[in-house]
Amino acid sequence: MKKNMGAVDKLVRLVVALLIIIAYYQEIVTGVLAIVFLIVSGIFVLTSLVSICPLYSIFGIKTCPLEKKK
Fold first, then answer.
1. Model confidence, pTM
2. Is residue 36 part of a domain?
3. Cα 9 from chain centroid?
4. For site-directed labelling of 63, which of 5, 38, 44, 46 has its Cα 20 to 30 A away?
């Protein structure tokens, strides 16, 4: 699969994931909602590391810079 996430998008996802994890450890978010948020933050981290978002592929969204054609 081709990468479809830009640097800003990856950074925003990592920051949001970090904020969710901090909120969990400080017990701001608890219970089932905390588990759901942790799963979402894990997905954010994973998609940021591989630079591919499956939902972006489905909807045709691409936030990475255009590749130069040779």
1. 0.84
2. yes
3. 8
4. 38
